[in-house]
Every structure is written in C-alpha cells, then in structure tokens.
Amino acid sequence: MSDAKFLTRCLQLANQARGKTYPNPMVGAVIVHHGRIIGEGYHQMAGGPHAEVEAIRSVKDQTLLPSSTLYCSLEPCAHHGKTPPCCELISKHKISRVVIGMQDSYHEVNGKGIQHLRSHGIQVDFAKDPTPFQQFNKAFIINKTHFRPMVTLKWAQTKDGFIDRVRSVDSDEQALKISGKISSLLTHRLRSSVSGIVISAKTAVLDAPSLTVRLWHGTSPIPIIVVGDTYKPSNSWLRSLEVAPILIAKEAYTGFTTIIADSNDITFWLPKLLEYDIGHVLVEGGARLLQSFIRENLDDEVIRYTGSMSIENGIPAPFYDQFDERTLLDSDVYEHKY
Ligand code: AOF
Ligand code: ZN
User: Fold this and answer.
1) 304: three-class secondary structure by DSSP
2) d(CA 285, CA 318)
3) What is the DSSP track for 250-298?
4) Would the CB of 54 count as within 6 Å of ligand 1?
C-alpha cells in the first residue's frame, strides 16, 4: 500500500515539469526512511539533473541513505547522456531498496539500470501495474519506440455527427459553435500540454484561427499548417500567428519554416517534427485531415466532444466505430479514447 502511495507522489512531483522535459520523460523520485519522506526531486528540464540526483541531493542527513528506499517513477538510467548514470549514484550511496514505476523504453537504458542495481545487491521492486506510469509518459514512449511525435486528435461534433455546416471560403459565416465553455477550457489546457498544433490549410483559410493558449496558463504550441493542392494560407495570417508556424508543403514558403512534403504522406513528415523538438501534436482539423490520421493508425489519443444540437446536414465528423465515453461535462459529452 505505501509503495503505491510513494510512487504516486513521484508522479505528482514529475508532473510539475509537464511540457518542459522534451526529449526526456517526466520523472519524479522520493526517498523514504522508516516510512517518512526525507528527500524529493524531479527532472525539471532536458540537460538538467535527473530526478534521483535531485532527490538524493535534497536529503539533509546523507547517513540515512543506506537504510532508505528510493522510489522513482522511471527505471534509473544506466547510460552517460547529458548527465551521468543515476544507477551508479544510487549504488555509490548504498541505498538498500529501489521501487520503480516502469522500465525505461529508451534502448540505452531499458533494463540495464535494473541490472546494475541488482548486481550491486540492491533490492529492486516494481509498481503492481506499470500502466499509469506508461500513460503518464506516453509521448516519451512513442518518441523512443516509434520515432515520431505522439498524436492527439480532437474535434467537436453535433449530436447527429457533423463538425460544421458547409461553408465557402468567400462567405463570412463563422464556424459552428458546437461545444460549451468547459470544452473550450479543456481544449486550451490540452493546447498548453502539447508542443505542436496541426491544422489543414483549408481550416486556416476558413477560420483564420489564432491557435494560442488563452483560457489556460502555459505556452502556446507551434502551429503546423498542412498545405495540400487546393487551399493556401495567406501570408498575412501566417505572420499574425503568435508563434512562428511550420508549414508542410510541396514548395517552400519564403520567410517561414517549411518541411517539403506531400501533405498526404503523413508517415513521411510527422517524424520530421521531432527535429523541431515537437514530441506531441494536437490535430484540431479539418475532418479530412483528422480522418487521414485515423486511416494511418496515428490516433494515439482521441478527444471528441458531442454537443446537444442537430443540424441535419453539413460536414461529416471523422468516423469511428468504437468509443468509450468517460465524462459528462457542461452540456457537452466529452469522450476520450486511448
Ligand atoms: C532517470 N531519471 O529523471 C530522467 C531519465 O541526456 P540525459 O543524461 O538527461 O539522459 C536522458 C535519458 O535518460 C532519457 O532518454 C531517459 O531514458 C532517461 N531519463 N532517467 O533515471 C530522470 N529524466
Ligand atoms: Zn538518470
């Protein structure tokens, strides 16, 4: 029971660096002596000390370490990266027991940290279920095992399955407002936790969205505009964006970062975003782009809001056959699929 409690504390600590650790995971560590926390730490940013280092440093009476347990949400590292191996620091301090949330999926570590600790006579135990720890660092795991950013798809649809009315580029008609205030808050919180926000050029032309975080705290993600053959975003809109965008297009856009690619070739251009430190993207539309991600099995997480209105015809929402409904909020149905 108390192992689970201290491991949960590791996640609380790690969560303080959400969005700041790329390309590293979020990691927290706690040191416990006879049931009492004597040290805590978390990985604050890439290049900085790891969670275990911070936790060990924070212990005032270092003579207590050999009779203490170190809890860590991730397997202590075994390699020389930007910082030295944590497992060597742990064995140097003769900490007697280590409890780990999940094994590190990074190939340089992956089990080697555990092996090192055990070979130094340290007792190593694990969380009963690694799932919450894996879910917590899902983007990191996808980056390290699939070599591409994690993808979250998000849209709102009417009760009868449309995401908008059909609108022409020349009309002044605004986008249909389907979801309520709480959904907007959640969307902005979501935006603040990703590093890139993807929309199609058609959505850019129709809606000229600002793509910023306004209803939550935190930084706005990098806009990524996917340009096909039909619609081109205007230079004035591109320049108006708060964060400099990246374009995915067949030809370079002067003055803007462009990844030269066929917009339909998602599996080609998506991994390239890692080079711009984008480890997690939120795809906000339009329907065709969302559907292409689903078709390519690039739907690591899906958030769908269903409003209470019906409009009878319009632009059909992306198609899914199975959805797990999770929470009912406001007048919206907020559904979440992993
Ligand atoms: C840990 N504790 O707090 C973190 C770990 O370049 P470096 O030296 O920072 O190493 C980065 C790798 O170390 C990263 O890919 C992941 O495997 C692990 N991160 N490990 O024991 C930590 N942040
Ligand atoms: Zn480490």
Assistant:
1) strand
2) 10
3) SS--TTSEEEES-TT-HHHHTGGGGGGT--EEEEEE-HHHHHHHHHTT-
4) no
Q: Whose CA is nearest to atom 2 of ligand 1?
A: 50
Q: Does the bond joining 218 to the residue before it have cis omega, within 30 degrees of 0?
A: no
> Among 41-50, 160-169, 233-242, whose mean pLDDT is lowest?
160-169
Residue nearest (by alpha carbon) to ligand 1 atom 18:
77
Q: Do 74 and 137 meet the contact criterion of CB atoms below 8 Å apart? A: yes
Rounded to a whole number, what is the largest CA-CA distance in the chain?
73
The H or E element that residue 182 is part of is helix 181-193
Radius of gyration of the chain (CA): 23
**N-to-C CA span, the chain:** 27
Burial grade of 100 (CB within 10 A; 0-12, 13-18, 19 or more):
buried
Distance, CA 86 to ligand 2 centroid (Å)?
4
Phi-psi map region of 277: left, alpha, beta (phi>0 left; psi -120 to 50 alpha): left
Distance CA(202)–CA(281), nearest Å, equals 18
pLDDT tens per residue, range 48-59:
999 999 999 999
Which structural domains are found in the chain, ordered by start?
Answer: 2-138 (3.40.140.10), 148-337 (3.40.430.10)
Q: For residue 125, which of 104, 102, 109, 94 has the smallest C-alpha distance?
A: 102
52 is catalytic: yes
For 193-231, what is each residue's pLDDT tens digit? 999 999 999 999 998 999 999 999 989 999 999 999 999
* CA of residue 77 to ligand 1 center, whole Å: 6
